[in-house]
Write a structure and sequence with these properties.
The structure is a single chain. By secondary structure, the protein is α+β, with helices and mostly antiparallel strands. It has one domain. About 30% of the residues lie in helices and about 25% in strands. The chain has a four-stranded antiparallel beta sheet with strand order 2-3-1-4, with helices on one face. Strand 2 and strand 3 form a beta hairpin. Helix 1 crosses helix 3. The longest helix is centred in the first third of the chain and has 13 residues. The N and C termini lie close together (about 10 Å).
């Protein structure tokens, strides 16, 4: 699979939380968020917990549970927002789902390139 480099921006990481506290990010800064997102992409724990909480877990598209053990995430504060660099072979649909679980709609895709 091709690897992509996603460039994301989070306006207010301190208040960025997913809608369901069972799956939401609860860290304190960019490094904590980078670790949480990297774990969510490398492993399937977050997906499995979310899937189990669905009304019909068997109806959930298993493609959303795809992982990338080599995913790399870094984050840093820049001006008044957080910039996130993500390199992964996962499709945007999977990245988007994990981001929404962790921080809701508090993020914005700035750019995407082949890695």
């Amino acid at each position: 699979m091709a690897r992509n480099h996603y460039f994301l921006s989070i306006a207010d990481l301190a208040h960025a939380r997913g809608a369901d506290p069972r799956f939401a990010y609860d860290g304190a800064g960019p490094n904590d968020f980078a670790v949480a997102l990297q774990q969510a992409l490398r492993g399937d724990d977050l997906f499995k917990r979310w899937r189990a909480a669905q009304p019909d877990p068997d109806a959930v598209d298993t493609a959303l549970g795809t992982t990338d053990p080599a995913a790399q995430v870094s984050a840093r504060v820049a001006d008044l927002h957080t910039e996130v660099d993500l390199v992964t072979e996962l499709p945007m649909s999977v990245v988007r789902q994990r981001l929404y679980l962790l921080i809701g709609a508090a993020w914005q895709l700035r750019d995407m390139r082949a890695a």
